[in-house]
Design brief:
The structure is a single chain. The protein is built from 8 helices and 3 strands. With 280 residues, it is mostly helical. The longest helix has 26 residues. It is elongated and about 120 Å long. It starts with 7 loop residues before the first strand and ends in a 10-residue tail after the last helix. About 8% of the residues have low confidence.
């Protein structure tokens, strides 16, 4: 999540030892946070390996003894069933400006750590430079990510392309989740890659859950069509039954009068059944 009034919290599973290389990374996070005026607190929580669910995303890696951490604006995790992420809450519930600050914090820290510039104030992604974190890119990313919760292959649905890009504002056109929105985000990512590489090509791929390398199943948005029909009330059925009974009664009465005459027809309704007598 983006930074809030309390700042950011870097949640880890175990404190690093002095000789661990990851300790330098944590120290770099704190140093860059001070430079960017972002309150940052490193919180440690031991992982319960036997637990069916985890409180933070990095705990899944910690169970496999992999070093990981979760950067969040929350001091404590949400309790089940209130687990949620940016993809669940929607783009409007996220402060894009705060996300920009968090992205800049992570990017600046990783650049210094990976390229061996720890302790140096590089300000690689400073505002006003070509490498600044662009607010419109973050806003478009949030729209795409929140359009289809946790369905990664369906976020971006643009065909491969090697044609030159025609830049246009990301805020122009496209609603959250449609093809134009994904295409705009892909164009923005490809545009940035083209600035720092010789070639940038979009190559789509399909994650096959049957493969040993992708043991996860992704689902697209479930769509269904609801059809509602307005039927006649029960009184309509009653009127039909009464009408049919009256029609059959009149038809029977007419045929009886025509064949038997009035006295015999009347006798059908008035005569009493004869009593049987016993013979001695």
């Amino acid at each position: 999540g983006g930074a809030n009034d309390e700042g950011l919290f870097l949640h880890i599973s175990r404190p690093p030892k002095e000789e661990d290389p990851v300790k330098d990374l944590y120290d770099e996070f704190e140093a860059v946070a001070i430079e960017l005026d972002i309150p940052l607190t490193i919180k440690q929580k031991k992982v319960n390996i036997s637990a069916a669910t985890v409180a933070w995303e990095h705990e899944q890696f910690a169970k496999r003894k992999l070093i990981a951490g979760t950067l969040s604006a929350r001091r404590a995790p949400l309790t089940s069933p209130g687990f949620s992420s940016l993809a669940d809450r929607g783009a409007r519930a996220v402060n894009a400006t705060s996300v920009v600050r968090a992205v800049r914090l992570v990017a600046e820290t990783l650049v210094r750590h990976m390229y061996g510039h720890s302790g140096r104030q590089l300000d690689t992604f400073a505002q006003g430079t070509s490498r600044q974190v662009r607010l419109e890119h973050i806003e478009q990313s949030l729209k795409v990510l929140t359009s289809t919760p946790r369905a990664v292959p369906y976020h971006l649905s643009a065909p491969p392309s090697t044609k030159p890009l025609t830049p246009r504002p990301l805020s122009a056109g496209g609603s959250a989740g449609d093809d134009s929105t994904g295409a705009l985000l892909l164009a923005a990512l490809r545009q940035v890659l083209a600035e720092y590489s010789t070639e940038a090509i979009v190559m789509p791929f399909k994650l096959d859950p049957r493969s040993a390398f992708t043991p996860y199943q992704f689902h697209s948005i479930t769509t269904a069509q609801l059809e509602v029909y307005q039927s006649a009330s029960i009184m309509f059925d009653i009127y039909v039954v009464v009408g049919i009974a009256a029609h059959l009664g009149l038809l029977f009465l007419g045929l009886a009068l025509a064949t038997r005459g009035w006295p015999d027809t009347l006798a059908l309704f008035t005569s009493k059944p004869l009593k049987k007598s016993k013979s001695g």
